[in-house]
Write a structure and sequence with these properties.
The protein is an all-alpha fold and about 140 residues long. Helix content is about 75%, strand content about 0%. It contains six helices and no strands. It is globular, with a radius of gyration of 16 Å. The two termini are about 20 Å apart.
């Protein structure tokens, strides 16, 4: 994810390892993001028992897949939970549609083996391109 982002942004290849200095804030921020994901997962699960609301449950699952694979980019840019939610709102259509596609691919045997790498690359491209257009 980092290599793809650096390539798209024209940054030179680098490996900074200042991670240990920010370990506790990182863990706290990730814990908050995981809590939001668990909350929405619970909502999707609970709503899935009501037949008329099943499409909403599936749609929430699409968003959760998008969040799962976009989180690599969010973490790299050290976005707070609030900033992640704002990014999700701004790119709602693209993330939902991409999440739906990868939701289907995860269900296909053998293809599901390459989905994590493929989805991470896709959402990194999507996130970085959207971020780039905001800066221009």
């Amino acid at each position: 994810s980092e290599s793809i982002s650096d390539e798209l942004e024209g940054k030179p290849f680098k490996r900074e390892r200042g991670f240990w200095n920010e370990l506790l804030p990182f863990i706290w921020n990730e814990t908050k993001k995981v809590s939001v994901i668990v909350f929405f997962s619970f909502i999707a699960f609970a709503v899935s028992f009501i037949p008329i609301l099943l499409p909403i449950s599936i749609w929430i699952s699409f968003i959760l897949i998008a969040a799962q694979f976009t989180d690599y980019s969010w973490s790299r840019d050290r976005l707070t939970t609030k900033q992640c939610m704002q990014d999700m709102k701004k790119n709602f259509f693209h993330y939902s549609l991409s999440g739906a596609v990868f939701f289907l691919f995860i269900s296909v045997p053998m293809i599901n083996l390459i989905v994590p790498a493929w989805a991470t690359s896709h959402f990194t491209l999507l996130y970085t391109k959207k971020k780039k257009t905001k800066l221009v």
